[in-house]
Amino acid sequence: MSVSNARRLATCVALFVIFTQAASAADILIGDAKSQPESLAVAPGGVLFVGSASSPFVYKVRSGSSTAEKFIDASAEGPGTFFFGMLVDAASNTLWTCQLTPVPDTTPVRRHTALRGFDLSTGAPKVRWSLPEDDSTCNDFSIGPDKALYITDTTNGKIYRLPAGASTAELYLEHRTLMGVDGITFLDGTLYVNNVVFNKLYRIPVDADGKPGKPIDIWMDQPVKGPDGMRAANGKLIVAENGSGTIAAITVNGEKASVTVLKEGLKSPTGVEPAGDTLWISERGAGKVLSIPMPK
């Protein structure tokens, strides 16, 4: 092959990569610019489920579509009801979400929150478990190696555990460093949480009997601001920083971690969801979800 032909081939390959990445990107308005999509999840087949922090709806976006349809309507639950965390559990055909409803006539505002499980296909209610505190913030969750669901309560600094097939969760861990706990995920079988108030990342150690211990502070080589939704992919923690408008990948090495910025300039990103070669992001401040190529 001549040098000129080799150069033309290299140019074509580069353009193909660019066009492929562009085609895989998406920018989808959820209802309207004020919908405040807090969290999102992806079901098998590429269906998106997106919660709203400003309305009592969970939206569904079919694969290949740019239109958000109302999937769950909780308007009968009380004024001001909205949704936080979203998680698809394909094995049990369940969409998990956190439902929050303000308590009337309270100053400062208190919220009653519940873990809700809905049929992934029909939206029919399956599980409802109310967090026990008078004021709570069911925020996010992750499925562990034991198939249990681990749930964060931001207001009360607690992590709950819902065993597979159960309808009532149990307290898993309560600790003062967890006041402000938000994102939660398992990386290589180890539980990690972040703190949206104090901009921290913690590993939860577990003893030989399976009991959790004091959260271990992971030192990061650059600041994160408002770490929110967090998922694990390709050996890294992917985090939405709502305070800096940034999506970052965190590589953990023992009790230290390196932070790599993946995308900047977003308006209050609050959720991330890896799905194959695509990383989905909920941009709460813009009322939309978007996708970027998943970093290797």
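(ticket continues) Second input and output from the same batch:
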Amino acid sequence: MRSAQHPTALWVQQALGSSYAVLEFDQPTHSAAQAAAAIGCTIAQIAKSLVFVGPHNRPVLVIASGANRVDEEKLATLVGGTICRADADFVKKHTGFSIGGVPPVGHKLSPEVALDADLQVFDEIWAAGGTPNTVFKLTPDQLKVLTRADYCDIKAAGA
């Protein structure tokens, strides 16, 4: 693990400011399980970013605990319209990032954001840093401030 060097990760570092450190790994942190293994934390502490296509073809960013699945019906109710999982092209076009590295900040187009309430139980969580092998540490309160979003119940039953 070292300070991020990739230009995309440096962009995220700039968006975050000096209070955070985007870290780069030699191994991939593309999935929640890979990130947790690289960091040495639980999968539930990974704040995974999932992008959906929301009403009017606008991006909806869900930051969920790595241990949870998102209930798409709950999310649709929350955003007030139909949603569907975004494909890789939509994610890249609207966020500027590739799937597996989407951070909570620094997007091309500001998405509507929903935060998984289960993340609030941790003292520290880890989010993607802009590439499939970069992450940064933060608290649930910091995530709320950075995204200007609220925590809500979006976890699928049995997740």
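Agent notes: The mean pLDDT is 95. The beta strands are 2-3, 23-24, 46-53, 59-65, 84-85, 112-116, 125-128, 134-138, 151-152. Closing as not reproducible unless the customer responds.
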